[in-house]
Amino acid sequence: MQRIVVVGGGAGGLELVTRLGDRLGSRRRVPQAEVVLVDRYPTHVWKPLLHEVAAGSMDPFTHQLEYAAQARWHGFEFQQGELTGLDRARRVVRIGELRDEDGTLLLPVREIPYDTLVLAVGSTTHFFGVPGADQYAIALDTVAQAERFRRRLVALCLRARHWHASQERVPSGDGDAGWEDDTGADSAPTRADVRAEPDARAGASAAAGAARASDASPRSAEVRVAIVGGGATGVELSAELRNTAQVLAAYGLHDIDPRHDLSITLVEAGPRLLPALSERLSEETRKLLTGLGVSVMLDARVEAVVADGLQLAGGLHVPADLVVWAAGIKASPMLAQLDGLATNRLGQVLVRPTLQTETDDAVFALGDCASCAWGTSERRVPPRAQAAHQQASFLFEALLRQMDGKPLGAFEYRDLGSLVSLGRFSAVGSLMGGLIGGSMFVEGLFARFMYMSLYRLHIAALHGYPRMMLDAIAHWLRRSTMPRVKLH
Question: Transmembrane stretches, by residue range (predicted)?
Fold first, then answer.
């Protein structure tokens, strides 16, 4: 019996293995193939929503999907572990050992044979070699990283609340009396008066809104967040954090001013936000973020990330208590070490229009880890969730055709547009396709509804529409009895 092994349980990989299991797997009266999913984690969370996890507006533990349960329901096998090697001659993948939090060995190193291998391992954050970025900045690749950011944000808000409470008990004398720290002036950290103008542009504009770090002023209680990268993740996190601050203040747990005590600075090296999208969409997004009180710095290149913020080209310093790096992605370095598979400079596996790797016809790749031509042009299929979904759908049909001895066919990517969330009740984007005969700009509540529909379509692809509707109702009922933001 043929064995199909899919490595990576992201959006594309999980949709593919679910459909293969339903059609060919062990729950069929006569199974036609063994379908195996390999992933380093036991659960799946839709990656485009990690910014909401980081902001506390989505609880990942109520939205996660257990791979083992999905395997039981849909007739495939789940093996937990990280891909560490590939032997193409023997057609086996090597999976590393699995240990618990205490270091106890749970599963040894394993080798899993395959007839067809699909790599769907996604991407990881690209720090571009910027000094200090991997040490001081937080990426948003995993639920653990998003939760780490959220916990630190809540802790900083608690500290700010305590500072406000202590100031109310200190009699004010001279103008600066209230800023004194009982640890002594020498040991108290200083605050740099750096503020990016909302419309900051091209060096000179950024300088107008920022002062050098040497111009020290008394310590402030505000929480300062700097987000590097003006793509979708950076923009969405900026907007979501503003909503989080308002909710925290409304619940009274952190009695801080949501607009002034939480400063959010979005730093983009290019001349506009969302560079992969239209200029109109970029400009509308900038205006909306500015209206939310987010400081946007354009043409601002980060030269280093330091313990107290960002060092920009030209000597500008942006102070920050928390730094998020959302400036780019690359494939896992592990892919370039997989028995000679051809990769590009970003580490993506080079694939043909059939999604077979250029090196081995028995090995396929999809999603962010694959570099696939977009039509006849020199463009490549972008690393988006819709691309992974389309490739999973294509590969499902292609593998069925291959089992019947028919040609695989060629993958054709269709850009259906892009949507960017700007908080609980707003989004912006453009819709494309045959139904509207071109491109249509959308914004506001309608765009937000379309944005959330993408997640529901993903759930429908995994569970079917009836269970998706039940899941949506269950989450609505749960949220009606819980705060909109995690408070701890």
Answer: 425-446
